[in-house]
Amino acid sequence: MTDPRTTVVVITYNRRPELLRTLGRLAGLPERPRVIVTDNGSTDGTAEAVARHHSDVRLLRPGRNLGAAGRNLAVREVRTPYVAFCDDDSWWAPGSLSGAADLLDRHPALGSVTARIVVEPGGTEDPVVRELRHSPVPGPSWLPGPALGSFLAAATVLRTDAFRTAGGFNPRLWLGGEEELLAADLAADGWWLTYADHLTIHHRASAVRDATLRRRHGIRNTLWFTWLRRPAGPALRRTLNLARTVPRDTASLLAFAEAAAALPWVLRERRVLPREVESRLRLLEPAQRTSTARRYTG
């Protein structure tokens, strides 16, 4: 069942055991995809372990932590029409990469396919799956699943050329809700994003994470996206809603301060989305306010 259509890209930082488990799972897939790993400056022997145990994996070592932009570095080397992302603590289920490629082959205006996320070791669905499955975004009749306003990088297959044309992940955002800006730019380029319930990725969350820092960056990045792409009225409403609903703590205060300090470059790079894309985002606002699965801003 070898399938040459998709390359898997993984970014990692100081998670050697989790990454080796993920690479072992990917190596066992029937599709036998090419895998590219960007090691974001690990100091725990990650790169050496990958070279020793997975010599067939293309290993990139930029020498510093690029955050989500480490994926951009890897995509430069992708030669397949599709690129699948997964984190160092997640892995694709057998057949899911081929299933996503089939959907992208079949629908030329489809830019990305997001899979169902199963949380391990219990095998339960991630709470965000229900929100993906019941997305309020309207889509064309040909779309093979619910239309999405954004995607989850750790569970998505994209068209390589569409990713490159949209500019990939903005390096300024680093990590934490970095997908929202790229998803909007893909939609502005005319691509549709969808969720596919029959595709699966497994996620066993690493204990090596700074949840507070990730939340801080997520709030900041949500603000930046809002100011970069939304019209003035919706941008103000979403900013005020965030100010009312985020936890009253130091992380939230720092997030707002960092976002405000960046206003000069935000205003220089501001580019409001086309009306039809903005209308989809407005439909998502009620769901965002009541979401129980917000990973960064709730």
Automatic annotation (TrEMBL):
<comment type="similarity">
    <text>Belongs to the glycosyltransferase 2 family.</text>
</comment>
<protein>
    <submittedName>
        <fullName>Glycosyltransferase family 2 protein</fullName>
        <ecNumber>2.4.-.-</ecNumber>
    </submittedName>
</protein>
<feature type="domain" description="Glycosyltransferase 2-like">
    <location>
        <begin position="7"/>
        <end position="131"/>
    </location>
</feature>
<dbReference type="InterPro" id="IPR029044">
    <property type="entry name" value="Nucleotide-diphossugar_trans"/>
</dbReference>
<comment type="pathway">
    <text>Cell wall biogenesis; cell wall polysaccharide biosynthesis.</text>
</comment>
<keyword id="KW-0328">Glycosyltransferase</keyword>
<dbReference type="Pfam" id="PF00535">
    <property type="entry name" value="Glycos_transf_2"/>
</dbReference>
<dbReference type="GO" id="GO:0016757">
    <property type="term" value="F:glycosyltransferase activity"/>
</dbReference>
<keyword id="KW-0808">Transferase</keyword>
<dbReference type="InterPro" id="IPR001173">
    <property type="entry name" value="Glyco_trans_2-like"/>
</dbReference>
